Give the backbone structure.
Amino acid sequence: MRQNSRGQCFSHAKKIMVKQWLQIAAIYQEAGMQAVRKNHYVILPKDFEKGYRSNVKKSDTDFEFYR
C-alpha cells in the first residue's frame, strides 16, 4: 500500500521533530553533567553553552587546521 504525499510529509516532519528533541535532551543532559562535575547545585548558562557546543554539529566551514 502506497502512502500519499501528505502522509509522507507528516512522517518526515515527525522524524525531524524527534531528532530535534533528542538533540535538546542531549544538550540538557550534558549541561547537567557539567554542573555535577563542577559540584554545582544549579545548572548555569555556561553549562548549557558547553553542552550545546559538545552536541551540535560543527559547521562545515569550521576546519580544525585553521585554528
